[in-house]
Amino acid sequence: MLNRYPLWKNLLILLVIGVGIIYALPNLYPEDPAVQISGTRGSIEVTDRELNRATQALDAAGIEVLQASLENNSVLIRLHESEQQLAAREVIQQTLGDNFVVALNQAPTTPEWLSNIGARGVNLGLDLRGGVHFLMEVDMDAALKQQLEVTASEVRATLRTERLRFRQVSVEEGRLLIRLASADDLPEARRLLQRNLTDYVFEDSAADALLTLSLTEQAVRELEDYAVDQNLITLRNRVNELGVAEPLVQRSGRNRIVVELPGVQDTAAAKRVLGATANLEFRLEARRNADPLDTEEFIFRDQPNRNAALERDIITTGNNVANASVGFDENNRPQVNIRLNGQGGRLMSQATRPNVGRSMGVLFIEHKTRTRFERVDGERVEVREPYTERGIISLATIQSELGSSFRITGVGSIQEASELALLLRAGALAAPIYFVEERTIGPSLGQRNIEQGISSIQIGLALVVIFMLAWYRVFGIFACVALASNLVLLVALLSALGATLTLPGIAGIVLTLGMAVDANVLINARIKEEIYHRGMSPQNAIHAGYEKAFSTILDANITTLLVAVILFSIGTGPVKGFAVTLSLGLLTSMFTAILVTRMQVNWVYGKRRIESLSI
């Protein structure tokens, strides 16, 4: 019989709508403003002691806590109002100190049964609400010092190769100082070094047998640009590792970088990963009779009472790591599997081939910042003090010549190993970088724009409903039910896929609603034409209306979908947000405008003989 769906088809359509309703439900539960506390490293545990100290400090400061909980090695403290977040973060940071990261957050209030099935609210973009803004500053002095340290290693190697004796090669106050054993060697040392170090200005002092190297102004500017550009690339890689949708990472001024992460939930983890300036250095362990000026003493990172002397010369660094992954050694302890690029593999091979039997140390370097508060002219001012921590994470005997692939053991917990592998995959920062400003972002154009965006959807939906009911009567009711289903399914898809909704995305939803009802207009117009102009019976007209309108609807939606795909592929930011909602809306509107309305028509008219239609 015409206009009847089999039972399985009706159940399948209802199942899709039911699942859509469930996955759209989390959007009815607003998030709570919160602060999140975690360790600066994965090995630092956050316990009930930190939770109690934080809540007591907030209580003493007159900041009311809605709820505090400890889970997954971090503390989440929910607050009543978003205006309390900055004050709460400052109080907690002073109380707990620099070993803990205190980050602003938005805590979901979705019921547990929804969370257990993976249902979550739509991520809102920075122009609505939901995300974090970081302003980061590159330490140019540290970038200069790092470059001079690399040059110092090259100078030592050159002088040893040419058998020119020297007392010390050191970096002091932005200059490279070379103290030779004899002033007679100054001309020869200068001639040898000037061949390769063309970016340096040379000065010599015969009285002190001292050769001083300083980078030229142009070289300093190029180094600063390189440091910022390399940090931009590294931060983008780290953001990609975090899986953030539609992030913004761009340069701001001479030495600052802006990072905006829309829809981020765990801002503490994001801050820890983005701000980590960790790097590795591979060095040989110093020989017992080595010159003290050519060696450095370091403690072990996980054993502060143990130390070892390493050579100052660096074999290679984390900058030459091509890939890194987490694994387990024969004792089921976490390790990091390293694969070096061509240059790194060559340097590692050259250094280990003649040194089989000696030990090689892996030095872990972290650039950090201490934060303290001072009173300046009666005002409380935040003062940042940068410092560097260096510790050995592995010291193992070289059993055979190493190439581009090897492993690092002794990295601590699996979480520390995972973070180290992530940082090495994403690339090391060319220079330390510090957080100058951090804030959660509300609507960039104000709360009024959020309300206007939602109102535009409500007004557009209401006008469409009024028109359809007035013009198509019962069939208008079918279209309105399908339209509501379309909106629910679209929101559910945005939530399930973790897409970020922005103001342009809301525009895409409004456009989708108009295009969705357009399909029903085509179907209803075709049914009326079959009845009034071709003289078909109501049942045949319904069947013909859906069959003949389908190809037109399909062609129109495919062409629009192609445009949306092009917008997504070549656009950025807001344009992609619009393209995503438009593309998903086209798919849901095809489903609801054709299948959902047809199911309703079949329920009402498909099981009986009718003489006329209310259309």
TrEMBL record:
Biological process (GO), any one: protein transport by the Sec complex
Gene3D superfamilies per UniProt: 3.30.1360.200, 3.30.70.260, 3.30.70.3400, Multidrug efflux transporter AcrB transmembrane domain
Organism of origin: Marinospirillum alkaliphilum DSM 21637
Topology in membrane: Multi-pass membrane protein
The protein's role, per its UniProt record: Part of the Sec protein translocase complex. Interacts with the SecYEG preprotein conducting channel. SecDF uses the proton motive force (PMF) to complete protein translocation after the ATP-dependent function of SecA.
Localization, UniProt: Cell membrane
Residue ranges of domain SecD export protein N-terminal TM in the record: 2-104
Molecular function, one GO term: protein-transporting ATPase activity
Transmembrane segments: 453-472, 477-499, 505-527, 548-571, 577-599
Pfam families: Sec_GG, SecD-TM1, SecD_1st, SecD_SecF_C, SecDF_P1_head
Subunit composition and interactions: Forms a complex with SecF. Part of the essential Sec protein translocation apparatus which comprises SecA, SecYEG and auxiliary proteins SecDF-YajC and YidC.
Chief location category: membrane
Annotated PANTHER family: PROTEIN TRANSLOCASE SUBUNIT SECD (PTHR30081:SF1), PROTEIN-EXPORT MEMBRANE PROTEIN SEC (PTHR30081)
Residues of the Protein translocase subunit SecDF P1 domain: 228-285
Tree of life domain: Bacteria
InterPro entries from the UniProt entry: Acrflvin-R (IPR001036), SecD (IPR005791), SecD-TM (IPR027398), SecD/SecF_arch_bac (IPR022813), SecD/SecF_CS (IPR022646), SecD_1st (IPR048631), SecD_SecF_C (IPR048634), SecD_SecF_C_bact (IPR055344)
Domain SecDF P1 head subdomain: 302-431
SUPFAM superfamilies to which the protein is assigned, alphabetical: Multidrug efflux transporter AcrB transmembrane domain
Protein name (database record): Protein translocase subunit SecD
NCBIfam families: 2A0604s01 (TIGR00916), secD (TIGR01129)
Positions of the Protein export membrane protein SecD/SecF C-terminal domain: 436-602
Gene Ontology CC annotations of this record: plasma membrane
Protein family: Belongs to the SecD/SecF family. SecD subfamily.
